[in-house]
Write a structure and sequence with these properties.
three-stranded antiparallel sheet; Arc Repressor Mutant, subunit A; Alpha-Beta Plaits; globular; alpha+beta
Length: 527
């Protein structure tokens, strides 16, 4: 081999590819065949290739080293701050941090670059609802760092996750996981024509037993940057447990991501080694569907061995069992049957305790209707994906009863009005209309409400009509007085058709929606 060939081999031996070896050998053969005259030319070509490969190698090395620099960049820290403050803009610690935002972010940047960053001690509290959980809360400045870290490393690892991992990922979540279970149960049972089984498993004390050394070794497969690795070690070491180098705090953004990453090893084992086709995982809960109970027992045994040997974890003996699919699967708050889906009694009891607290706080005037509505909105969205129409209607009815909107309209006939309101407190005034009213009171117009709620403008106007009919909204709040009186002057009877009223008005600027609202106002005034 010539001198230039040796140079190339030495430079690219780390990043060696077969086509490069073939090219070097081909040039050497040519030089031997054509004699020494062509040797210099070939050597020149090889030196050129060597320079190109060397430049690429240095470039990739530079990119790897610059990952920590990217993490520390002001732009990334600012983006991390915006994510950390989301839905917490009125909290005192967010307002305080934002007062001197630039200097606070620059201070964090300096600490990271100088390797002097130390997270503040975690604020720990016990949550009993009804299960006892130890929740650890990081200081706001540390949460900014967590977001800055996840901004960069999450896209790198997310590509390696399996499709059926549903926790803390974009376009995933509990609803998608439950829908996937519905799809799997139809597939594995051949549309409920054969008996099937489910391995439902849970990992024992998962967050408390994650091994830091194993986690770091998993991260190092993709990330070589020492600065990033050191930062991850600092974040992990801030949480103290009885066993050294074990555990992650519940409540941290990084814990959610690392929990997914750690069990990605299990996902790969289940899919690639066990060939478990119908496997779904959400954090530390996972299920496998199969038509053979014997196969599921083998899966359970092999998974338990894998967790003990490779990840230093174990399956929960009481929560890991094989069930018949026809008896239903308890998964992510739902009880999933073949033809329907119910809410778990445990979750209903939890909500009823919360509702009782909200009633008490509202009675003591510590919260208003809008705050109570925000608390209930998530629950109503959750139960809407189950076969629980009557229960949902009952929740709406009770909400309207215990969190009424105080009327500021003079009532001519109180008894008639009281009977009318009793009627309206059933499922007629839907929660959706009340949410629209809340946004209107917050200063949003029809277009803004429609955009915020991802609804058509016509739907928002329909909400207004309902609210006006049920004495929860004044027509003058949404339509100027002059326009209202103009429409009223052309309506002699509430049975008039909208098109008929529109023709009598002879004004293109007045819409059918506005006419509908005025008709609702006339209907209400009767009572």
């Amino acid at each position: 081999m010539t001198l230039a060939s040796e140079v190339v081999v030495n430079i690219i031996k780390v990043k060696w590819l077969p086509w490069r070896l073939w090219y070097v050998n081909r040039l050497n053969n040519r030089s031997n065949a054509n004699g020494n005259n062509n040797l210099d030319n070939n050597n020149g070509r090889l030196v050129g290739i060597a320079k190109l490969i060397n430049a690429r190698t240095l470039s990739s090395s530079f990119m790897s080293e610059s990952l920590f620099r990217k993490l520390c960049s002001y732009k990334n820290l600012e983006r991390a701050f915006q994510k950390a403050r989301k839905r917490k803009t009125l909290r005192s610690y967010v307002i305080e941090f934002e007062k001197d935002l630039r200097n606070n972010l620059l201070k964090l940047q300096k600490e990271l670059l100088n390797n002097t960053y130390k997270p503040k001690p975690l604020e720990t509290f016990i949550l009993r609802d009804p299960k006892t959980r130890k929740i650890s809360k990081s200081d706001f400045r540390d949460r900014v760092i967590h977001h800055a870290l996840c901004n960069l490393i999450e896209p790198i690892f997310d590509k390696t996750f399996i499709f059926d991992s549903y926790a803390n990922r974009k376009l995933k979540g509990t609803l998608k996981a439950v829908q996937r279970v519905d799809y799997f149960k139809r597939k594995v049972s051949k549309n409920n024509t054969r008996t099937c089984y489910v391995l439902k498993a849970d990992i024992k004390y998962y967050f408390e037993t994650v091994d830091h050394e194993i986690l770091i070794s998993i991260i190092k497969k993709k990330i070589k940057d020492k600065g990033v690795i050191n930062l991850i070690k600092i974040i992990l070491s801030n949480y103290k447990t009885k066993i050294e180098n074990r555990g992650m705090p519940l409540g941290n953004l990084t814990s959610q991501f690392f929990a997914n990453l750690y069990l990605n090893e299990l996902d790969q084992f289940a899919k690639q080694k066990l060939k478990a086709k119908y496997y779904i995982r959400y954090v530390d809960d996972f299920i496998i569907l199969h038509h053979s109970r014997k196969t599921l027992k083998e899966y359970q045994s092999k998974i338990d061995d894998f967790l003990r040997e490779k990840l230093n974890l174990e399956l929960h003996p009481d929560k890991s069992r094989i069930l018949k699919l026809n008896n239903g699967i308890s998964f992510l708050g739902y009880r999933i049957f073949y033809y329907h889906r119910l809410i778990r009694r445990k979750n209903i009891n939890k909500f009823e305790r919360k509702f009782k607290k909200l009633k008490q706080l509202h009675k003591e005037k510590k919260i208003n209707r809008e705050i109570a509505m925000e608390s209930l909105e998530g629950w109503l969205a959750f139960i809407s994906h189950a076969n629980a129409y009557k229960y949902k209607r009952d929740v709406v009815k009770r909400f309207n009863k215990y969190f009424p909107i105080e009327s500021y309209i003079k009532i001519k006939n109180p008894k008639k009005h009281e009977n009318f309101i009793k009627k309206s407190r059933t499922n007629n005034v839907q929660f959706s209309s009340l949410k629209t009213l809340q946004l209107l009171r917050n200063g949003l117009n029809v277009k803004e409400i429609a955009k915020r709620r991802d609804l058509k403008e016509s739907t928002i106007w329909t909400h207004f009509v309902r609210l006006i009919e049920h004495n929860q909204l004044l027509v003058f709040e949404i339509i100027p007085k002059k326009r209202v009186y103009k429409i009223l002057s052309k309506i002699k009877n509430e049975t008039y058709y909208l098109r008929e009223i529109k023709e009598r008005l002879n004004d293109e600027s007045i819409t059918f929606d506005e006419i509908s609202c005025v008709l609702a106002y006339i209907k209400f005034k009767k009572y």
